[in-house]
Amino acid sequence: MVNIPDAELLRLIRTEDPEETEALFAAARAAREARYGRRVFFRGLIEFSNYCKNDCLYCGIRRSRSSIERYRLSEERILACCRLGDLLGYKTFVLQSGEDPWWDDARVTALVAAVRSAFPDHAITLSLGERSPRAFERWFRAGANRYLLRHETADAEHYARLHPEGITLASRKKCLFMLKEIGYQVGAGFMVGTPFQTPEHLLEDLHFLQELHPHMAGIGPFIPAEDTPFAAFPAGSLAQSLRMIALVRLLLPDALIPATTALGTISPLGREQGLRAGANVVMPNLSPRAVRPLYALYDHKICTGDEAAECRFCLEGRIRGAGFEPDLSRGDWTG
Ligand code: SAM
Ligand code: FES
After folding, report:
1. Which of 88, 271, 307, 315 to mutate to test the pocket of ligand 2 (most atoms within 8 A of CB)?
2. Distance, CA 261 to ligand 1 centroid (Å)?
3. Which of 24, 73, 284, 322 has its CA 20 to 30 A from that of 100?
4. Is the pLDDT reported for residue 1 higher than 80?
5. Where does residue 264 rank: exposed (0-12), middle (13-18), buried (19+ CB within 10 A)?
């Protein structure tokens, strides 16, 4: 693992010097190329329920946001999305939802088993929030391989300002270590530019990622969502999000790092810039078009009107245009 002194990290988190930033991105690209070449991996994302029992202050599908219509896809519809993803060449499915109690441990186990039996060679990633150790183990045994659970911010006080009482950073961290212990490839990560965030908080995020050493790290700007307590706060900046991607790439050279939809939302070429700052994954949307606008994590989310095939070919073009090589293999962690 690379070690950069904290004072230097803090300076790079803050810098607005164009030459220094370009040098940082070049170093991040070199680190990623040494490990993964110019390949960019695809993950087909299925957002299968926007019901959520949580009330995270930043999130557009939080429980108390009554202005959005709620939906839940059936197992059959989720399998149909997987079949479409398979036809488009994807070898990884990411099943994501709010913390939806209807999808209890047994239903998720059955879903994972059904996807596993239909697609024995694909990677199955779950992203369902915090659940019990027993559930995590059952789903792993049923065939899930990976789990995405961003830590959101690694500073306990900052975490408490972004979440309602009772939801703690300690519990989130415990889940992440447990998932790793069970054998999942684990994805942590954080938002850039959330209300009250300081450069020191971002330094703590880097420290936590070094401690956890996750296989994946999702980093994207905070973007306000209407009818949420943070609706009037500004979005995180593209420049700082890119610098954080580059720093994570340098500190965890073997990590899989997505060029997130949020990056593409705050800037038309944000995902391409993410790839140039060291990211090496894209997550095209496979959810049925009718429900996409309802998975409204933040305002003006891109790709909500596009067919799955459009996203597939759009991303392929964007990746090539940025000088990288689309790779449709499973894209397992190779550290
Ligand atoms: N329920 C699962 C969980 O909590 O991990 C998965 C779904 S959750 C909505 C997925 C991610 O969306 C969160 O980890 C968070 O970082 C991101 N997110 C939520 N609201 C956001 C916002 N307003 N801006 C940017 N990202 C946001
Ligand atoms: Fe969805 Fe470009 S990725 S349209």
Report:
1. 315
2. 11
3. 284
4. no
5. buried
Residue 287 in any domain: the answer is yes
Indicate if the pLDDT at residue 49 is higher than 70.
yes
Structural domain contains residue 129: yes
Q: Give the strand pairing for 123-127 and 44-49.
A: unpaired
- The structural domain count of the chain equals 1
Q: Would you say the pTM of this structure is higher than 0.70? A: yes
pLDDT tens track for 86-134: 999 999 999 999 999 999 999 999 999 999 999 999 999 999 999 999 9
Any domain includes 333: no
- CATH code of the domain covering residue 91: 3.20.20.70
Are 249 and 5 in contact by the 8 Å Cβ rule? The answer is: no
SS3 content of the chain, % helix, strand, coil (to 5): 45, 15, 45
Q: Dig out the tokens for 108 from the structure.
A: 């998720």
Ligand nearest to the CA of 264: 2
Q: Do the domain assignments include residue 332?
A: no
* Continuous segment of H or E residues that includes residue 219: strand 216-221
The set of residues, in sequence order, having a beta carbon less than 8 Å from that of 278 and lying 6+ positions away, is 25, 28, 29, 31, 32, 245, 246, 248, 249, 250, 257
Residues at CB less than 6 angstroms from ligand 1 = 58-61, 96, 98-99, 127-129, 149-150, 152, 191, 220, 222-223, 225, 262, 297-298
Q: Which of 27, 24, 4, 2 is nearest to 203 (CA)?
A: 4
pLDDT tens per residue, range 173-201: 999 999 999 999 999 999 999 999 999 99
**What is the residue range of 76's domain?**
6-327
